[in-house]
Amino acid sequence: MKKKQSILSFILITTTLVLGACSSTEGVSENASSKKNGSNESQPIVVGSQAADFQIWEFIAQSDAAKEAGITLEVEEVDGGPQLNTATVEGEVDVNAFQSWAYLESFNEESGSDLAAFATTYLEPMGIYSDKVDSVEDVTEGLVVAIADNPSNASRGLLLLEAAGLITLPDDFDVLGTTSDIIDNPKNLTFVEIDDTTGPRVIQDVDLVLIGNTIAMEGGLNVLEDSIFHEEITDETKANVNILVTQKENADNEDILKLGELYHDEEVQEYIEKQFDGTKVPVQKDISYLEE
After folding, report:
1. Which one in 67, 142, 185, 222 has a CA-CA gap of 20 to 30 Å to 265?
2. What are the pLDDT digits (tens) for 39-84?
3. 3-state class of 38 per DSSP?
4. Is position 3 within any domain?
5. Domain for residue 190, yes or no?
């Protein structure tokens, strides 16, 4: 009888331990799942970018400012503007950092998307470059101008030529404007379209080249020093200000909005100034400034 009682006691104790272990394991599992779902810790914000902007956002992700803000960033490099915007539309990245306001408007209009800008970052001036002339005053009749083959950079380049006094455009010229919209071309400039990433390589082949600063820097050029004319920050160039972009439904998310503040943090701005020789001119304005 005592032997049977001992066996029963052993079975009861063993069963209790096993059930207790199962209960403990289930608790850990639920807690881990809860954290994964974001109830106990914030999820990383995925930022898609390319080229120099990718470098900047990798720095921001590791910055003291990001840590102090309690923001965790994952930075993914995606080559190509349309690909970056498509990745944002499809939710593969939460935010993208690479484009100007004009580029976003052009993309939304052509694709039927409604991506939203939520912060301004900088103006990266486009410049007019030449190995043939030293200033816009030296531009003579019939020179050949290389212009981007994509709509947003082509229209931007034409506006730059107008600012330099070389052509005249209509008052309603917009981000999808082309050379066919020119209403006065007193120098009889001839335009040839190029892949704008090749700009630095064709300087010797044409008379004038319109090059965005990211591409210029990759080609060893500094827009502030090497161009014969470049953009300044004015109401006329505000459509060329770079922005942070997300899905429309995320544009008022508190954590996502903090990314604009992180970009303009003093530590981050000192890094950008040093790395890019002042060619990413900071712009810290409300998005409504670009919408006016």
Report:
1. 222
2. 335 689 999 999 889 999 999 999 999 999 999 999 999 999 999 9
3. coil
4. no
5. yes
Would residue 80 count as lying in a domain? yes
Q: Judge contact between 241 and 101, C-beta under 8 A.
A: yes
pTM of the model: 0.75
63-91 core/surface letters (b: 16 or more CB in 10 A; e: else)? bebbeeeebebebbebeebeebbbbbbee
Q: 105 with 151, same domain?
A: no
Residue 247 belongs to what domain range?
Answer: 45-124+238-291
Q: Distance between CA atoms of 265 and 138, rounded to whole angstroms?
A: 42
Distance CA(190)–CA(19), nearest Å, equals 84
CATH number of the domain enclosing 159:
3.40.190.10
For 88-106, the pLDDT digits (tens) are 999 999 999 999 998 899 8
Distance CA 38, CA 253 (A): 15
